[in-house]
Write a structure and sequence with these properties.
The chain is an all-alpha fold. The chain contains six helices and no strands. This is PiggyBac transposable element-derived protein domain-containing protein.
Length: 102
């Protein structure tokens, strides 16, 4: 019997952990929102579990492939893998990534 990858992933990262990441990230977005407005970022919205899961998948993939590139290189239209751009847009993941890496 084949199981979807999410089943195996949930053995390491469960829904409660993802919910905590969403809560923490949204709290930090609220604190940093005035700074983003000054940086001409057009819209900053709260994240959701699906976006956090997409971000984690985007981060796991280069680790599994030993792809040691910066986020800007991963999302480069000419040289980056299409998989990263299919998972999320670069600007959308930069904010949660910056918050979660603190």
């Amino acid at each position: 019997m084949l199981y979807p990858p999410k089943i195996f992933f949930s053995l390491f990262v469960d829904d409660d952990m993802v919910r905590d990441m969403v809560t923490y990230t949204n709290q930090r977005i609220d604190v940093r929102a005035p700074k983003y407005a000054n940086d001409n970022i057009q819209s900053v919205s709260h994240t959701c579990p699906e976006e956090i899961m997409a971000l984690m998948g985007i981060l796991i993939q280069p680790g599994a492939k030993h792809d040691n590139k910066l986020i800007t290189e991963m999302f480069d239209p000419q040289h980056g893998a299409p998989l990263y751009r299919a998972g999320a847009c670069e600007k959308k993941i930069q904010i949660p990534l910056g918050i979660l890496s603190v």
